[in-house]
Design goal:
- Helix content is about 80%, strand content about 0%.
- The chain is built from 3 helices and no strands.
- By secondary structure, the chain is mainly alpha-helical.
- The protein is elongated and about 40 Å long.
- The model has no long low-confidence stretch (mean pLDDT about 80).
- It has helices at about 5-10, 10-35, 40-60.
- The termini are close together.
């Protein structure tokens, strides 16, 4: 079973969380790059990474 099949097989709440976490990471990186690597952007990037952990565990787990 490939990664794409595992992502497709996620329950709806985990899929939404996975998608939202990627959007939060992208938003945070935009802030970081826009403000020349200052404070708030790294907090948002970290939040996005933390939000993606449950879905990643489910995708790469058994």
């Amino acid at each position: 079973m490939g990664i794409i099949d595992k992502v497709k097989g996620l329950p709806t709440p985990l899929f939404i969380l996975h998608f939202a976490s990627k959007a939060v990471v992208a938003f945070g990186l935009g802030i970081v790059l826009g403000s020349r690597l200052e404070g708030l952007g790294w907090l948002i990037v970290g939040l996005g990474v933390v939000l993606s952990i449950p879905a990643v565990i489910r995708i790469f787990g058994k």
